[in-house]
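::Encoded backbone::
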Amino acid sequence: MKNILISGASRGIGWALLQKYLQNGNRVFAVSRNISNFITLKEQFSTTFDFASCDVSDKSDVENAIQNAGNFLNNIDLAILNAGISGSENFENFSSEKYKYIFNTNLFGVLHFFEYLIPSMKNNNGGTIAVTSSLADVRGFAGSAAYSSSKAALTRTLEAARAELHRFNIKIVTIRPGFVRTDMTAKNRFPMPFMIDAGQAAEIIINALDAGKARINFPLPTYLITNLLQLMPDALFDFVMKFYKVSIDE
């Protein structure tokens, strides 16, 4: 049995992970801005599940959530930091506030947890922090600059953290999904090839974590395509982007 913290656990991949880990007999503490889904689950798993409302972009909220999680779990063996948001933005009518909003959740929402999790795991002789980034981190996609750049910054941050924290027996895992059928992707108004269900995504993540993987990239076809995009000459990518733009319902 593991003691697990999951952020962004009220929907999508986080919700699927939460249910699977509880069904497998683990103790789980979940955090999310929307906690309505957790109430029924608490009735079913009264002794192995608890939760708290938390806006990950608010550092004081995260501090309170970590304290509550520590009280319930004692030691946190595995933290899955899954909270994230998407957004469509363009430079024709640019707003820096929208950029900040996405970065505050996707990047700093993770770093707020790091500030409290790292000292705790050092004191407990180690642990695992798994973070959901995205395969969209490979390039700057037109219409999705803030999302793709926030995930790129997150992925690079995790690489550096992995290198530094291994000596404390703290394992950093980068999760990079492609398109997963969730409330977030339901807003997208562009082709999403090789989409998988949130339950499938959760199974892939759990199996990879159990196998000790440091990087979890899926589904395979999307991973291969994004690798090709990363290798694409800049001039060719710039040309393609002139005819491509992400559209997301706000």
